[in-house]
Amino acid sequence: MIGSFQQSQLRIEIAAPLPKIRDSLVRSAQLQQWLAPQRLGAGIPDELAPGLIFQSSIGPVTIQHQVESIEPNYLRLLLSQGIDGYHEWYWGDGWLQSRLEGISLLPLNLGQTLSLLRLKQFLTSAPPSQDSK
């Protein structure tokens, strides 16, 4: 892989309950809403599940994601192609933490920061989820 090794860990407070945060990370329709400008590939099921492999793109760069683990307050994705590494998400009532580590030409900390800000805006402006588990 061409690029440099990068790691970033960010934690933010979000005025949202745990189920709403979880849905925004594991339900593909919600994920796509706040993830822009990154675009999810076609054919992703309604909810992420362990073993699922899907792609996303940021301009000409494609990133492959493999869902390694999903728990009530944890998600781990293995990344390859545009980023070789992993992305971990932890959350609870009122907070969200993201840990990203990998080799890439992309500025991972900048992208992670912008993504968390978009997610926070999405969660604080979205109506309550009708299908929370």
List the helices and strands and how they pair.
Layout: E1 4-13, H1 18-26, H2 28-35, E2 39-40, E3 53-58, E4 61-71, E5 74-81, E6 84-92, E7 95-104, H3 108-125
Antiparallel strand pairs: 1-7, 2-3, 3-4, 4-5, 5-6, 6-7
Helix pairs in contact: 1-2
Q: Describe it for me?
A:
The chain has one domain: Alpha-D-Glucose-1,6-Bisphosphate, Chain A, domain 4 (2-Layer Sandwich), CATH 3.30.530. β4 (61-71) and β5 (74-81) form a beta hairpin. With 133 residues, the protein is α+β, with helices and mostly antiparallel strands. It has a 7-stranded antiparallel beta sheet with strand order 1-7-6-5-4-3-2, with helices on one face. The protein is built from 3 helices and 7 strands, in the order βααββββββα.
Characterize the biggest β-sheet.
Answer: 7 strands, antiparallel
Just name the CATH architecture: 2-Layer Sandwich
Which oligomeric state applies?
single chain
CATH-assigned fold name:
Alpha-D-Glucose-1,6-Bisphosphate, Chain A, domain 4
Q: Which superfamily, in CATH terms, is the homologous superfamily? A: START domain
List the uncertain runs: none
Number of strands: 7
Please give the CATH class.
Alpha Beta
Shape: globular
Kindly name the structural category: alpha+beta
Which radius of gyration do the C-alpha atoms yield? 14 Å
How many domains?
A: 1
Q: Can you give the helix content as a percent range?
A: 25-40%
Following the backbone from N to C, one meets helices and strands in this order, namely: EHHEEEEEEH
Question: How far apart are the termini?
Answer: 39 Å
Mean pLDDT rating = 91
Helix count from the secondary structure assignment: 3
- Arrangement of strands in the largest sheet: 1-7-6-5-4-3-2
Q: Estimate the strand proportion.
A: 35-45%
